[in-house]
Amino acid sequence: xxxxxxxxxxxxxxxxxxxxxxxxxxxxxxxxxxxxxxxxxxxxxxxxxxxxxxxxxxxxxxxxxxxxxxxxxxxxxxxxxxxxxxxxxxxxxxxxxxxxxxxxxxxxxxxxxxx
Length: 115
Hints:
- By secondary structure, the chain is an all-alpha fold.
- It is built from 3 helices and no strands.
- Helix 1 packs antiparallel against helix 2 (about 30-70), helix 1 (about 5-30) packs parallel to helix 3 (about 70-95) and helix 2 (about 30-70) packs antiparallel against helix 3 (about 70-95).
- The longest helix has about 35 residues, at about 30-70.
- It is elongated and about 55 Å long.
- The chain starts with 5 loop residues before the first helix and ends in an 18-residue tail after the last helix.
């Protein structure tokens, strides 16, 4: 049975805040896979936009939590932001460890084909 009281609203706040954070990271960043592929070439720029996304998430989820008077927005948004930041940090470490070990896509390649 679905929660019809405050518990239901808390679940909605949790989910909406998490979804908001995922959308923010989608708008401000390429995928973690792309981050891994280009970490050796563009590490500072890639992580700069991860931090911009995190800052936007803090502001918007904070407003949501204050206006909605619920900590569940902070929990949902915070969990999603922590997971996204962790994925990008992992992708950056992996990409930097594999520097110079690219497959068919290399610098100057167009549409995935090497020249």
